[in-house]
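pasting for the record
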Amino acid sequence: MKNIAIIGSGSWGVALATHLANIGHKVRVWSFQEEEKNLINDERKCKFLPKLIVPEGIECSTNFKEVIEGADFILHVTPSKFTREIFKQYKQYIGNIPVIICSKGFEKDTMKTLDEVILDERPETRVGVLSGPSHAEEVSISIPTVLVMASKDKEVSELVQDTFMCPHMRVYTSEDVKGVELGGALKNIIAFCAGVAAGIHLGDNSFAALITRGLGEITRLGVALGGKKDTLYGLSGLGDLIVTCLSEHSRNRKAGKLIGEGKTIEEQPVNETLLTQENITKILQTFIGKQEQVPPIYSAIKVNGKKLYEYARKGQQVELKPRQIEIYNIDLIDYSPKEKQIKFEVFCGKGTYIRSLCEDIATKFGTVGYMKSLKRTQVGDFKIKDSITVEELNKIVENSNMANTKNNEANNKANNKMSNEIDKKIISVEKIFEASPSIELDERKLKLFLNGVMLTQKYDDGVYKI
């Protein structure tokens, strides 16, 4: 019996855990959600595999140390876009324990394969890749499956192979880590195209052509990037391509099919089980701090002397470079499950685009989103709660005029009252700059300054009173 740690409690992580527990191994699964942990431990259910009864040999925890301690190897099964972020959180507990990548894809910003991401963060890691034609829905119910385990460390490959093997699961080994990674990642593009073909009702001839020519492209690119041709014609290339292009279990095929049917991205179904108040709050908190943000194309930022929205209006492509921003705090105000709308309050630094932030939040939920409305409540020290509308100001003046009589003393009182009310509402220039340091100028320098001449005194950058 082996002790296995699985990082990630999605459908594939739980399916692998179920297979291993069913053949006698002890499995601990890490989840970032307390709710998900309780569902697995207490109700023996997985929200991504609703028909599955989770075996007793599986325990779930939100604590990395608890999950990893004493493990013979670690299966990393998180979405590719979160691989680096999550690995950073648990790499301190690894020691000499092998880490096996079970996710498929590239890191978006660097276009690195996931084994490269792991080795970037911890070069001494004993890393491997487990891939091949496999759907969680089938592995979890013991349908015969064949996988390939790749590692430059033969001991690691054989350890995983021996652990997984049983009458309904066969595992081949390989030293071609790059080829296995690339085969699993690149086939997603062709699978998406297969979905589009299904959505526009093309026939078997078209599917055969797509898969055949798609495999040729995958192989040529894979070899150019360091993989081996034989690997890409094996389980992780050809095998994975067939199962992903033809199966209704495939998410990439489903997405392509919806596009082919003429639906927009916003019409894609959202996994409502992920949109809990607790989960939304956790996701929002991950945005606090300094970070880089890609500005929206419809913005006033200049590139080569032209504003971005000028390029956008002409349909011209332009590189959108990330900019350094800082978010000081972000709080969930309200969430409407029916409308799938999140209302939040954010306190952020200069240059932050809330429109881009909304899109980034949706991305972390594995979906798309947009900013429906924006209300600015504070700029610097000025807060909207301290503001007054023109209508309110006119009302004060009208009330004063109504109080005017032929009695001069009464009129003076009414005018004084109006002035006092206006003074309470309007922030004076002196009030705005009362905390700013002063610069005293003689009459000659003041005249020059008022005519636009730059002061020659050596002061630090800042706001001053003259």
